Amino acid sequence: MMLTLAAKELKSLFGSPLAWSVLAVLQALLAYVFLGQLDAYLSLQPRLTALANPPGVTEMVAVPLFGIAALVLLMATPLLSMRLIAGERRDRTLTFLFSAPLSLTEIVLGKFLGLLAFLAAVAALPALMALSLYAGGALDFGLVLANLLGLLLLAAAFAALGLFFSSLTASPTLAGISSLGAFLGLWVVNMAVTDPNSTLHTLSLLKHLESFNRGLVDSADIAYFLVFAALFLAFTVRRLDNQRLGG
Amino acid sequence: MSNPTLTAHNLVRRYGPHTAVDHVSFELHRGEVLGFLGPNGAGKSTTMQMLTGNLAPSGGSVRICGVDLREHPREAKAKLGYLPETPPLYRDLTVDEFLILAAKLHRVGKGEIAAAVAHAKERCGLKKVGKKLIGALSKGYRQRLGIAQAIVHNPAVVILDEPTVGLDPLQIREIRSLIRELGGEHSVILSTHILPEVESACDRVQIMNEGKLVFQDTLASLKEQAGSGGLEDVFVKLVLNEEAAA
Q1: Least Cα separation, residue B194 to chain A (angstroms)
Q2: In this complex, is the C-beta atom of B55 within 8 Å of any C-beta atom belonging to chain A?
Q3: Cross-chain residue pair B105–A93, CB shorter than 8 Å
Q4: Which one of A53, B5, B101, B173 counts the least CB within 10 Å of its CB?
Q5: A174-205 in b/e burial notation, b at 16+ Cβ within 10 A?
């Protein structure tokens, strides 16, 4: 049931020009960064060999790609998640799901998985471009995989939070702008903090993503993203249940 | 009498201090079309939302074919078909895609989906528009599709909230004959404030006013009460009496 709903959401996404635009814009940006970094790497290569522990092509070309992809996710997820529940509420189609023999958890997870499947396609773009480097030299697969995992976990956290904001209102635009604000807030929440032990670092999405960017897969970071996503999915179920109770 | 397909027992719904539905109880039997009448704001739609699990009642219970809606919502909802006031249609799907989705979500077996969708389309006169996007359909077709999604899984109880609003006279006639047909196999609750609709399609009538049931009997008995004055007079009388008494 959950998967039926996820497939429907994915189909609706790919049926709209928005999803394709997101993929196209991302691909154009990625290509630009990819070629720029590759150029820089090639021109620096003779000098790099003189260093004792030189950065490899993966570090210099692939990692920035994932950085750009994370930023695009931050901008694009609100656009994609905003209509998931708010749009249905506005069009009064939520009744269709509520009247069907589905639990609220199934509805929320179905929508979440549909969006996450699309975001996984977004995350696959930089991964595939990084893999293309393998044709011309050695590649640090561990680093690429760590980056990909980080990006997927970030996508799950964004999708869950976006879905939650979408469940709060009947206006997709409002849901979208609130999600964007929340994402950006969580991105930069530790910016002004100088104390390295501050709890604000623990809250910052960027801080947790950084370890993955460096190739460090830390279970604490994985747990942060998973708990973050689970928490907002649970909030979304609660919110829909309250709507049924409160009318 | 056979076992009831739907039982509502002492349904109550409060919004803060306001009681929208006040201890409403009734039964529905197989093959019956129940006309649900009342002025705007009487609590008809609220009652229907509670019967279909879209709104939690403040008190009372609903049983569909003996299954409690609160305790076993899945089993109960699988036996229900609901067309709300605004047909819940995804504009970006085609008619076929939407009906297949509805059948799947209502747990129609894999092998039976195609047949169920074809049957629903035939009954609602949607054969020609299967490949069309819902967004491109006219109002009449959307209303028919709304009914089709409510009956595609062959539910025991079909609940229709004002299915003929905004349709032209010809379409109204078609929908009414469809409702009569549905009454053969399913139990139907038809909410409306159009009296001739009740006269042409329903076996039993219940009238609601200010959250309470003020009349509950067969159509024949309502007509008897009306005498020569017609249904309209007796409807006005029942509703106004209640207001005077309150």
Answers
A1: 24
A2: yes
A3: no
A4: A53
A5: ebbebbbebbeebbebbeeeeeeeeeeeeebb
Whether residue A244 and residue B56 make contact (CB cut-off 8 A), yes or no, is yes
Q: What is the pLDDT along chain B (246 residues), one digit of tens a residue?
A: 468 899 999 999 998 889 999 999 999 998 899 999 888 888 899 999 999 999 999 999 999 999 999 999 999 999 999 999 899 999 999 999 999 999 999 999 999 999 999 999 998 889 999 999 999 999 889 999 999 999 999 999 999 998 888 788 888 888 888 888 888 888 999 998 788 888 888 889 999 988 888 888 888 888 887 777 777 777 887 777 766 655
Which strand (E) or helix (H) includes residue A117?
helix A104-132
pTM of the model: 0.91
Q: Kindly list the residues of chain A whose beta carbon comes within 8 Å of any beta carbon in chain B.
A: 1, 4-5, 8, 11-12, 15-16, 91-103, 244-245, 247
The total number of structural domains that make up chain A: 1
**Residue A16 domain boundaries:** 2-246
Using the beta-carbon criterion (under 8 Å), do A101 and B105 form an inter-chain contact?
Answer: yes
CA nearest neighbour of B151 among B177, B181, B130: B181
Residues of chain A neighbouring B73 (CB-CB closer than 8 A): 101, 103
